[in-house]
Specification:
single chain, C8orf32 fold, five-stranded mixed sheet, five-stranded antiparallel sheet, disordered N terminus, Transglutaminase superfamily protein, Papain-like_cys_pep_sf
């Protein structure tokens, strides 16, 4: 039996580092450049926010914060204005957000959040005019879990909401990513080249899964590093190095390209001393949904047999011995 405490402690370790870095970079990413422009004005007391339920979305709470919306002091005329007044100021919106996106129902709101994060928008504002949002946290969590690429590339986000008038809300997001549009454009030809080299034509689904699993492990060298690129598809397809996020998103992208259903799973190693965060895949095999952890199956190139099958095609019952994850967001592996 493999002792998980001795496995590489990769996977999503950036959470603590990211939160520190996020605030270090905050002066640049969130509120401007100079000392005066960096001042944040607290939200006035009469601007309502949605109550958050601390008993739900355990993983989501590790990667997000509900905040009072910060105000960028971009010019002297912003002084003394409320958020609502600023959001009605086209100059302020243009300088702070670029533009205001709109959503008139919850389905469109969720799609708008998804689209913005898939476009790697660092900061965006949505004007929502649908029915009252009873649980903004659930809406954002559902959007966050809706896409493997969001789960794989968004290690931390902040969001907040103010009510402009009855039935109209402004919802604000600050998001940190492990990659960007330029890197993703670089990845595309690398993905195509790598996939073509697998020669999957004529193979069964399970054969394709096995080939992809082995190829991912043999392609990448595990690096326990804080560089964001090691936590992204760029780490795998361009650098050939990374932590569990790079393994799992490479598996996800290759499986999707092969037409195989797969989910990018975020959770924890249950047997680690410090609740080490981890990422792996939940794949629809011929036997049904099964957990596959390419990172933990990589024994290292120095081993005669680098590819282990110890964490390959696990049911939920077996996987629960090694991992904790928020099961309500994923299909069952029975």
């Amino acid at each position: 039996m493999i002792d998980l405490t001795q496995l590489r402690e990769g996977g999503l370790k950036i959470l603590d580092k990211v939160k520190k870095l996020f605030f270090i970079l905050g002066a640049v990413l969130l509120v401007g450049c100079t000392e005066d422009e960096n001042e944040v004005i607290p939200v006035v007391a009469d601007e309502a926010v949605v109550k958050q339920d601390p008993d739900n979305y355990e993983w989501f709470h590790m990667t997000s914060d509900f905040i009072d919306i910060p105000v960028n002091r971009l010019a002297s005329e912003t002084e003394g204005k409320t958020l609502i007044e600023l959001f009605d100021d086209e100059r302020y919106v243009r300088n702070t957000y670029g533009s205001i996106m709109e959503a008139k129902d919850e389905a469109t709101l969720k799609e708008t959040i998804q689209s913005a994060m898939l476009d790697y928008d660092l900061r965006f504002l949505i004007a929502y005019s649908g029915t009252a949002l009873e649980n903004l946290e659930q809406m954002v969590a559902d959007a966050y879990y809706s896409s493997p690429m969001i789960l794989a590339t968004v290690p931390y986000l902040q969001y907040g909401m103010v009510e402009a008038v009855e039935g109209k809300y402004f919802i604000h997001f600050n998001v940190l990513y492990t990659t960007n549009n330029i890197e993703m454009a670089t990845i595309k030809p690398k993905l195509e080249e790598f996939y073509t080299g697998l020669e999957l034509d004529g193979k069964t689904n399970d054969e394709k899964i096995s080939i992809i699993h082995r190829a991912v492990i043999e392609q990448i060298e595990y690096v326990d590093g804080g560089d964001f690129r090691y936590h992204s598809p760029y780490g795998f397809f361009v650098l050939g190095e990374g932590v569990c996020q790079a393994y799992a998103i490479a598996m996800q992208m290759l499986l999707e390209k092969a037409g195989i259903e797969s989910q990018f799973v975020v959770g924890y190693l249950t047997e680690s001393d410090n609740n080490t965060a981890h990422a792996w895949n939940l794949v629809k095999t011929d036997e049904g949904w099964r957990h596959i952890d390419a990172t933990s199956n990589d024994l290292g190139a120095a081993n005669d047999e680098q590819v282990s099958l110890y964490f390959y095609k696990l049911t939920d019952e077996v996987a629960s011995q090694y991992y904790f994850w928020d099961k309500k967001f994923y299909p069952e592996a029975e």
